[in-house]
Amino acid sequence: MNAVQFKTFARDGLIKIPSEYKDFLDKELSVILLLTEEAAKRKEHLFESVNKHAFKLPADYKFNRDEMNER
What we know:
Blueprint: E1 10-11, E2 14-15, H1 37-52, H2 65-69
Antiparallel strand pairs: 1-2
């Protein structure tokens, strides 16, 4: 079995295979997905940031679009 490793991004459920691996196109492939540490750290940082700025709304709060758009 031939194996290669490369970094890419999944977009809309598709993974682009770099052109240097054109021999792999139109063949049956086994795929293993590994989330890079960099991406995992960015995700962790995002959630830390969101949690740091989170706040609770009153239980009876109702969003009013017209009130928000008043000028």
